[in-house]
Structures are given as C-alpha cells and as structure tokens.
C-alpha cells in the first residue's frame, strides 16, 4: 500500500493511525517533500474522476478566485489546478498495486482493507 498526503493534515494523521493500529504496512509519500507528478494525478483522475479527487472544503480552495473555481469542469482543468496547488487534492490518497482504494479517510472504507 502507498499513502499519499501531507504529514500535518488531520485526515492523513487519522489514516496513518488506523493503518498502523491494524498492522497494515504502507509507504508514505509526502506531497510537500516528494512532490506529485502530472502522470500520477492523471492516473488517479482516470480511476476516480475529478469530483472525487478535488478537495473543495479546505482553505486553499476557499482562497481561489471565483472565476478559477468556476473554471474547474473536467479532468483536464482539475489536473492543471492540482499541479499548481497540490493542497486541493483530497487527502490522503491510498493506493494498492497502483489502484486507488480510497480518497480521504472514512473508517468504514479502511475497515474493508483490514479484513
């Protein structure tokens, strides 16, 4: 498993705590230190779509001009924004063998991983 996010994000902390408490091995990829590539985000968008991958509840989204927010209408426009401002990616993104198994943290979704 590979967990992508930012270490000081509360949701990422919950996910990491859950995985560790349930003995689920994972590798952590820090967006801030290791970056995030266009190919990686494009792959996620193909799997889950921009609506599920775009985080509209955080301060980064809130500070965007309304015109920028309104311009996000498809995978391509979301990809451009996510490359420019990775904080708008819903965190964490959890992958297993290159497949997105979860975006964000929902304990019910993560419980399925430990069974």
Produce the secondary structure layout:
Elements (H helix, E strand, L loop, with lengths): L1 E4 L4 H12 L5 E4 H4 L3 H11 L1 H4 L5 H4 L3 H6 L3 H10 L8 E4 L2 E5 L3 H7 L2
Parallel strand pairs: 1-2
Antiparallel strand pairs: 1-3, 3-4
- The percent range for helix content is 40-55%
Tell me about the biggest sheet?
4 strands, mixed
CATH architecture: 3-Layer(aba) Sandwich
Mean pLDDT: 94
| Distance between the first and last residues' Cα | 15 Å
> Tell me, what is the CATH class?
Alpha Beta
Number of domains: 1
Please identify the oligomeric state: single chain
| Structural class by sheet pairing and helices | alpha+beta
Tally of contiguous helical segments: 8
CA radius of gyration is 14 Å
Total number of β-strand segments? Answer: 4
Give the overall shape, derived from the CA principal axes.
Answer: globular
Strand content: 5-15%
Would you give an account of this structure?
The chain is α+β, with helices and mostly antiparallel strands. It has one domain (2-113): Glutaredoxin. Helices cover 50% and strands 15% of the residues. It has eight helices and four strands. The chain has helices at residues 10-21, 31-34, 38-48, 50-53, 59-62, 66-71, 75-84, 107-113, and strands at residues 2-5, 27-30, 93-96, 99-103. A four-stranded mixed beta sheet has the order 2-1-3-4. Helix 3 packs across helix 7. The longest helix is centred in the N-terminal third of the chain and has 12 residues, at 10-21.
């Amino acid at each position: 498993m590979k967990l992508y996010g930012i270490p000081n994000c509360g949701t990422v902390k919950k996910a990491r705590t859950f995985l560790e408490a349930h003995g689920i091995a994972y590798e952590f990829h820090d967006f801030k230190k290791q970056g995030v590539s266009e190919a990686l985000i494009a792959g996620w968008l193909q799997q889950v779509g921009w609506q599920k991958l775009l985080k509209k509840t955080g301060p980064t989204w809130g500070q965007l001009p309304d015109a920028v927010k309104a311009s996000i209408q498809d995978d391509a426009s979301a990809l451009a924004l996510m490359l420019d401002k990775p904080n708008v990616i819903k965190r964490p993104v959890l992958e297993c063998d290159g497949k997105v198994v979860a975006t964000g943290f929902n304990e019910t979704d993560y419980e399925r991983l430990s069974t």
